[in-house]
Amino acid sequence: MLPNNLYELDSVVVTEPKEKADQKPSGHGSSVQHGCDIVAFLKKNAFVVFTMTAVALGIGLGFALRHINMSARHVQYVRFPGELLMRILQMLVLPLIISSLITGMSTNTKTSGKIGLRAFSYYMVTTVIAVFTGVVLAVVIQPGKLSRETAASSAGKVEAVQSVDSFLDLIRNMFPSNLVEACFRKYKTVYSRSSSTGQHQDNMTDIIQMPGTSDGTNILGLLVFSVAFGLILSHMEYEGKHLRDLFECLNKTIMYLVDIVIWYSPVGIVFLLAAQIVNMADAGDIGRGVAMYALTVITGLIIHSFLTLPVIYFTVTHKNPFRFMTGLLQVVTTAFGTSSSSATLPVTLHCMEGNHNMDRRVTRFMLPLGATVNMDGVALYEVVAALFIAQVHNMDFSIGQIIVLSVVVTAASTGAAGIPQAGMVSMVIVLASTGLPTEDISLLMTVDWLLDRLRTATNVFGDCVGVGVVQHLSRHELQSSSPVK
């Protein structure tokens, strides 16, 4: 029966015959759909799959090559593709940091100030928690009790360093005298010995502090300059528009380059890990105490990464932290492969803005800053290492000494460079500041290649969690100000 009004056609319901409605999809159709789902998943997570596969291949290749008696030159050939990856990433880091910070700070001064205050508060809280975790584990497990007979008094020579000069160098590097030189060199106090001309010249020598430099980008100085430059630029409304557009264009160009380079990162990670495993010490050469020390550090990093940081993220945002973590697999595996927070920075920005859709005003301020300042993994490692060496020498630290050690570790880790083995450099400062023998740092060398990669992954993961936390706390300011496109 036809409806009286054509408008009633909207209410007509077309039903299928019962036989067709009761039919279920055939097994062939469901298998095709299942196959399409797998293909769609692989396309969406191609970077993650490739990077994690690269880590597995690199470890497998490294252990396979250990059975071959390879010379140092052959190992260098194996590492060469990975060396290219590190050089490319380090090439992109400098313009990326400068353009990201200036772009982020020049948008809205009030919003940037609140984001900065929350970021530093987050960095301080997580670093203190990491140090506390390390102290508790080192005191409870006491890994140094198993290594008292292996104190490395005759081990490799360690360069002399004064803790006060190291902190002064940190402040000096925040204000570089030459901005161009800061791109490839940083200030470092060097020491020379001269015979005393006083009454007791036969019995003593004087250590003279002299200004010097060391190779490497002065990231801290460039951070300070970029933040100040961006803040001033934000007050120059019409006059600074073209300059803001220039840095915005530069930032977008670098990110496009990152999108291209990121496809090469799995190849480089394979050979970086393979070469490192070929060079690592045999398990039999690692003493029980050093193995227990490594296990203590790894336990602390696991607690910090899978308990402390997720709890902080959930408490602040009320979101599932483990779902957040799944979008960071490529970041963490890249950090593990390169063992450099700075080299991982392009990948971190790509994943945080692509996978999690984080606001660029937050990511481009916090991630470059966190790659230099936020070193939770280094802080935990250093406090465990210092207490381990104290236990090796049967030195019992009092509560006051542990508090002093914690303060020194917090300060030293904050200025640690985001480069491979940077933790070992700041470790010398910690040992010298607490009166522990710096030559015993060679006890830690045999396992530091692994711990360096794990603490780098922890550092980078902490940076990403910080972005999520600060963006949630700053959501009202970000919504009220004009978004960055």
UniProtKB/TrEMBL annotation:
Alphabetized Pfam families for the sequence: SDF
**Molecular function via GO:** glutamate:sodium symporter activity; L-glutamate transmembrane transporter activity; neutral L-amino acid transmembrane transporter activity
- Which compartments does it reside in? Membrane
Mind telling me which residue stretches traverse the membrane in this protein? Answer: 46-64, 84-102, 122-141, 219-236, 256-278, 290-316, 328-352, 373-393, 399-419
- Per the record's keyword annotation, is tRNA processing included, yes or no? no
Keywords, in A-Z order: Glycoprotein, Membrane, Symport, Transmembrane, Transmembrane helix, Transport
What is the topology of this protein in the membrane according to its UniProt annotation?
Answer: Multi-pass membrane protein
Cellular component terms, GO, for this chain's entry?
plasma membrane
UniProt similarity note: Belongs to the dicarboxylate/amino acid:cation symporter (DAACS) (TC 2.A.23) family.
Q: Under which name does UniProt file this protein?
A: Amino acid transporter
Phylogenetic placement of the source organism: Eukaryota, Metazoa, Chordata, Craniata, Vertebrata
